[in-house]
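Thread title: Can someone regenerate the structure for this chain?

I was given the following input by a collaborator and told the matching structure tokens would be attached. They weren't. Posting the sequence so someone can regenerate them.
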Amino acid sequence: MGALDFRKNGMYTISNTSEIEMDRVAVNNQIRKRMQAVKQKNTEPEMLVKKALRQAKIPYLSGQGKHKPNSADILLPRQRLAIFVHGCFWHGHPGCRRATVPTTRTKYWKHKILTNQKRDKKAMKAFVGRGWIPLVIWECEIRDQATLSGIIQKLQNVTYESQP
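Best answer:
Regenerated them for you:
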């Protein structure tokens, strides 16, 4: 059975495609849809941190300019803290069991994670340049309630001291 192939010039051509290749296309479409469903803001870990901040009565702002370069997930203006809530897989948390590279398309995933890490580093540098303190909270730290509580307690004691 023939299938339509899209070419760069905008023309469709009919090619002979086996059922196995058509199954692969269907699976790739399923994976693509699943990946598109991954949220980029207000993720579960991010919402858990925000909830803990509210419970501790620590005022915060949700990340300003989401989807823009150099944006943080949560801002604590009084302390001048920029909080980045990172998923262990997506940001390559060193030493974490959730940060394993998939066995399929390994080259793609390594590049993707490395690109995320470079973007993270650039964003944090930008905040430091504006006099803010960047703080990374990892997904695995949030899942452990005791660890998250400890982080929130430390945040309550942070005060901003301007530098001369």
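The domain at 44-156 is CATH 3.40.960.10 (Endonuclease; Chain A).
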